[in-house]
Amino acid sequence: MKILTITLAPAIDVTYALDKPVSDGLNRAKSFVLTAGGKGINVSRAILNAAGGHDVNLVTVAPVGGASGGMFCAMLEDEGMDVTRLPIAAPLRINVSAIPDEGEDCEINAPGAEMTAADLEEAEARILDAVEAGDVVCVCGSCPKGVAKSYPAELCAKVKEKGAVCVIDCDGEALKTAVGSDCPPDYIKPNAGELAKLCADMGMAEGAPAENARAVCEKTGGKTAVITTLGGDGSMITWAGGQFTAKSRKVKPVRIKGAGDTFLGTFVYAKFVCGMRNEDAVQRASDAATKYVEG
């Protein structure tokens, strides 16, 4: 069994630590952290961290182009992460987060680098070539320009046709289309806000996260388990056989970008490599995300 992560919109993430930000004028950062990211990249990183040096059969796929793409690959090589690089012409995007000592955290995400029809065709061929029965495939993040919102659902169906498990971590129209398809994903990982929007988009009554998760699970006939991150309130998993909520410690965030991805990567490793029960896998993932946030 191997795990594949697919990131159609990888990025370089820059996180700035500030004192008290000003809205008009120059903000000087106290420090900054530069990371090669994007949801699937972060999920792969979390899987490797969860493995703690033990061998894990992991394939990380991402389209990469431009000078920023070269920097991105060099950063991952320094980390020791192998990436199946899909060359494209468009430069890699750069995202920015600001975390002040006083005031609210702020994120600015750039649009993903455009993929042509040929880029997408090559990416899909290489992904499906690598997928075997029993594998776990994580389709993560937004669809860049040139990629239809329906694409995660289309890829999910092809992955499941090969006998693999499909995990989808996206939001909005892409998530709605995947959940509403004839071949829904085995797992989805929205946060509480994304889950509420999914219910609204699908014409279902909105309620508390627990109710929303049950409604989505029932909508797919129990085919899709819903893993929901609840911020400082922990996380939850809902499946055809039940529901479990994992608690987390309240911490002062040192970083916010990638916390949900850390959660998902740890869950996937715990569930599919370690063979943990849903409850234990979600608790381990919640603990890992909390440690990540507090630095």
What is this entry, summarized?
The protein is α/β, with parallel strands linked by helices.
What does this structure look like?
- This protein has 295 residues and is α/β, with parallel strands linked by helices.
- It is 38% helix and 23% strand.
- It has a nine-stranded mixed β-sheet with strand order 5-4-1-8-9-10-11-12-13, with helices on both faces.
- Helix 2 (66-79) links the parallel strand 4 (58-64) and strand 5.
- It is globular, with a radius of gyration of 18 Å.
- The model has no long low-confidence stretch (mean pLDDT 93).
How would you state the average pLDDT, rounded?
A: 93
Regions with pLDDT < 50 over 5+ consecutive residues? none
How many runs of DSSP E, i.e. beta strands?
A: 13
Write out the strand line-up for the largest beta sheet, numbering strands in chain order. 5-4-1-8-9-10-11-12-13
Q: What percent of the residues sit in helical stretches (DSSP H or I)?
A: 25-40%
Number of helices: 9
List keywords for this structure.
single chain; 295 residues; alpha/beta; 9 helices; globular
Task: Set down the secondary structure blueprint.
Layout: E1 3-7, E2 11-18, E3 31-37, H1 39-51, E4 58-64, H2 66-79, E5 84-87, E6 93-100, E7 106-108, H3 117-130, E8 136-140, H4 151-161, E9 165-169, H5 172-179, E10 187-188, H6 192-201, H7 209-219, E11 225-229, E12 235-239, E13 242-246, H8 259-273, H9 278-293
Parallel strand pairs: 1-4, 1-8, 2-6, 4-5, 8-9, 9-10, 10-11
Antiparallel strand pairs: 2-3, 6-7, 11-12, 12-13
Helix pairs in contact: 1-8, 4-5, 5-6, 6-7, 8-9
